[in-house]
Design a protein that fits this description.
The complex is a heterodimer. Chain A is of the alpha/beta class. Chain A is about 30% helix and about 25% strand. Chain A contains 12 helices and 12 strands. In chain A, helix 4 crosses helix 5 and helix 5 packs across helix 7. The two termini of chain A are about 20 Å apart. In chain B, a hairpin with a 2-residue loop joins strand 9 and strand 10. Chain B has one domain: Rossmann fold (3-Layer(aba) Sandwich). The longest helix of chain B is centred in the middle third of the chain and has 18 residues. Chain B has an 8-stranded mixed sheet, sandwiched between helices. Classes of the chains: A alpha/beta, B alpha/beta.
Chain lengths: ~325, ~350
């Protein structure tokens, strides 16, 4: 991605803390990223790495309390969403930023037919009347590849299969032509053959509509297939960020390296014993004063226990634009 | 873990296993149909091997695994484990047989009693099936905790104090308690994070080597099955579509469904992401009302008229490769020197050797 283009979404130093009875949980720590027009940014990490919380913090989807978005800036075309009024946020959600959640079963309302659920954002945000909204809903269902769309418009969510429900969710998210689509593990609950269908659909829609997409997943295989750029999260922080081919060919952070080695492959040479990352993910009970990966890292040295590494660029370029990593151990220049 | 080793002993023989769940409708709750979760499958598992059972959700793989150790009453068919047909055993005979066959469940959260300590959970099978003294039992519990890599000091803690991966280790220790020969692993890693999955899979492999265990490894994760299994059975809508040695299957799947399934797995390599994918249309039909003919005929990209009429039998089309498809015939393949022995027998693979 060229440096020049103005990002559609620019997140700077986002910090989210949950206040619970057991103390604070620092779920997101100084996360910064940006999204270029038409780009697909993949966000990978294990459960608890803060990837979903980051995205939900952006548009105020976390209930507060317990969540507290403490610091940072989320710029959507010049407006800071963290300082926006509830009304302003409401005008953004569903209109300028679309959301697709993991479980299509629980994110659709079972007592409304899908037509009404697709029409809702159209009528709220675009001020369409029933007739126009219904027409547009029909187009959207056809766009996401639901056969016999005119009849299915009056069906209820339970009458759709998992893959079809996820298509309906995508139709809702796309209804108002959002600038940004945030997809939070949209294919995790689906079977592989259905997942392949949805991935094809998203590739096709990107070409047709050209919106920017944030795709959250823990599946590196999915990321390899669709992302332009990848952000790896661990312990509430961004540990590495790079263009997709660069990340898979030349991973820098010990976590990314280990992660790529722990997953077996379906083709090519069959690996011997699987490499493991020993230990458990960290408990984020305090603001980090050291590297979150230190306890599981094969290369950790004393500095890793004293100081939380900052993201720094690998090779040429700025942090966030080329390849960057947050690690003390990674050599300064690894490119030949 | 050899692919084609000399005569091996069959530990588990499954013949024409059917598992139907009745559907009752109407005011009188009349029996109006069946969900054919597992519809006539046959296969063998050899001693010391890992048979992978893969398929999409709802294909009947978990039901098959549970039926195999008779957690359900079978609709019909036989399951012979270590020389005994467990399908016909009485309740007491079955109870005495239980120590040889155990299970590791998918969800370590749901399969461990939250009000029992770890030592009580691991010790429960010992209470039921052995006459060990208290001290012997505790020694055995510690031994098992060591074997699965749990800290002995945590024996008196409750499941909630453990992470997902550790909980799965508790479940594995419980399954090992009675020195079983055969363990059904029903999606043992599906609920775990990627970095923890490898830990549990390595543990299962180590234990297999150490105790000479035989596994049925049920999973929807085709990459992990390729790693752990010696042979792999692919299920679709209650039936086995293909059963082949692991390397043969992954290198060259023969059944159209196996082909589509393998091509749908996203590869963690952007360079390979552009490879041709077979995208199946539509969804899996309901097992309560499977299509006539081949179960896969509604989505098969290579469907021919006969597929909608006649159900293909699982046939040995090449040495050690069993496929249920009209398009894959033994004659169409170079079946090698054994090409003459036509495996006509319906669903009797293994026996045709």
């Amino acid at each position: 991605m060229p440096d020049g283009a103005l990002p559609v979404l620019d997140v700077k130093g986002l910090k989210t803390v949950f206040r619970t009875r057991g103390g604070e949980v620092h779920a997101v720590n100084s996360v910064s990223f940006h999204l270029q027009p038409g780009e697909l940014l993949g966000v990978v990490g294990e459960s608890g790495s803060g990837k979903s919380v980051t995205m939900m913090s952006l548009i105020g989807l976390l209930p507060s309390p317990p969540a507290d978005v403490r610091e940072g800036q989320v710029l959507l075309g010049g407006m800071d969403l963290l300082r926006a009024t509830p009304d302003q946020l409401r005008a953004v959600r569903g209109a300028r930023i679309g959301f697709v959640f993991q479980d299509p079963m629980t994110s659709l309302n079972p007592v409304f037919n899908v037509g009404n659920q697709i029409m809702e954002p159209l009528r709220k945000h675009m001020g369409m009347d029933r007739k126009a909204a219904r027409q547009r809903a029909l187009e959207l269902l056809e766009l996401v590849g639901i056969p016999d769309a005119a009849r299915r418009l009056d069906d209820f969510p339970h009458q759709f299969s998992g893959g079809m429900r996820q298509r309906v969710m995508i139709a809702i998210a796309l209804a108002c032509n959002p600038e940004v689509l945030i997809a939070d593990e949209p294919t995790t609950a689906l079977d592989v053959t259905i997942q392949a269908q949805i991935l094809e659909l998203v590739k096709e829609l990107r070409q047709k509509l050209g919106m920017a997409i944030v795709w959250i997943t823990h599946d590196l295989g999915v990321i390899a297939g669709i992302a332009d750029r990848v952000m790896v999260m661990y312990g509430g922080q961004v540990v590495e960020q790079a263009p997709v081919r660069e990340l898979f060919a030349n991973p820098q952070h010990p976590y990314t390296r280990a992660l790529l080695k722990t997953i077996p492959k379906v083709s090519g040479e069959r690996e011997g014993r699987l490499q493991v990352i020993e230990g458990q993910p960290p408990i984020l009970s305090a603001a980090p004063t050291a590297c979150p990966f230190r306890a599981r890292c094969a290369h950790a040295f004393d500095r890793c226990h004293r100081e939380n590494p900052q993201r720094r660029a690998i090779g040429a370029g700025r942090v966030g634009y080329g390849h960057d990593v947050a690690c003390h151990w990674t050599p300064e220049v690894t490119h030949a | 873990m050899l692919d084609a080793s000399p005569p091996r002993k069959k530990l588990v023989e499954v013949k024409n296993l059917k598992m139907y769940f009745p559907i009752h409708t109407g005011l009188l709750r009349r029996h109006t149909g069946d969900v054919k979760a597992v519809d006539d499958i046959s296969f063998d598992i050899y001693e010391g091997e890992t048979l992978g059972l893969v398929g999409e959700s709802g294909c009947g793989k978990s039901t098959a695994g549970r039926a195999l150790i008779r957690l359900y009453e079978l609709t019909s068919g036989s399951v012979t484990i270590d020389g005994v047909d467990i399908a016909t055993l009485s309740a007491e005979q079955l109870r005495l047989k239980r120590p040889t066959m155990q299970m590791v469940f998918q969800d370590p959260q749901a399969s461990l009693n939250p009000r029992m300590t770890v030592s009580a959970i691991i010790g429960e099978p010992l209470d039921e099936h052995t006459t060990l003294t208290k001290a012997e039992k505790l020694a055995r519990i510690y031994e098992l905790m060591d074997a699965v890599g749990l800290n002995r000091n945590f024996a008196n803690r409750y499941p909630h104090a453990f992470s997902g991966g550790q909980r799965q280790r508790i479940g594995i220790a419980r399954a090992l308690a009675l020195n079983p020969k055969f363990i059904v692993c029903d999606e043992p890693i599906a609920a775990l994070d990627v970095s923890i999955q490898a830990q549990v899979v390595n543990l299962l492999e180590d234990l297999q080597e150490k105790f000479g265990l035989t596994y049925l490894f049920i999973s929807h994760d085709l990459s992990m099955v390729r790693h752990i299994a010696d042979r792999v059975a692919v299920m679709y809508l209650g039936q086995i579509m293909e059963l082949s040695a692991r390397d043969a299957l992954y290198a060259d799947p023969l059944h159209p469904y196996a082909k589509a399934l393998l091509s749908a797995v996203p590869e963690p390599d952007p360079a390979k992401a552009a490879r041709a994918r077979i995208i199946l249309q539509g969804d899996v039909p309901s097992p309560a009302n499977p299509p006539k003919g081949c179960n896969f005929c509604t989505r098969c990209p290579q469907v021919i008229p006969v597929c909608r009429e006649v159900q293909p039998a699982l046939t040995e089309v090449a040495p050690g490769r069993f496929v249920a498809c009209h398009l894959v015939q033994p004659t169409a393949l170079t079946a090698g020197p054994t090409g003459g022995t036509e495996a006509k027998e319906h669903n009797q693979q293994g026996a045709t050797r």
